[in-house]
């Protein structure tokens, strides 16, 4: 009883957006979502870039609607990358924690190319900006509410009232 007759949906999230909720209608198998079966679906969408999570679930309708989901593998035909989302849990109101939808993140996220790129950009930005945080510098942040500058002084004092006409402050 690990399969389901309920309507199953997926929402795929990538660095460029998401697909929105899509019902999985046509499997390459004659009967979909049977126990121990691997179903294959084609989901048409704009290219989302590198994928990082999915939401997988069902509507809870029909007899035997509980479903044990092992994993989801998404093949990106443009980049030829495979993204694996591990679940190993029930989507069933009467089993596990009672949820019929699960948010799953990509397995092996540390090897996710988008995260590697983000890490490199952070390092690059820090290399360019770290001088601001050297000992002896005063940091100023513009407060849009008070229209003044909040100053963090080297001796740990904070001027939260903010100088409205700081000659060193820059408003972006």
TrEMBL record:
Pfam families, A to Z: PLAT
CDD domains in the record: PLAT_repeat
Family annotation (InterPro entries): Inner_ear_hair_cell_LOXHD, PLAT/LH2_dom, PLAT/LH2_dom_sf
Domain of life: Eukaryota
Domain PLAT as annotated: residue spans: 1-105
Name used for this protein in its record: Lipoxygenase homology domain-containing protein 1
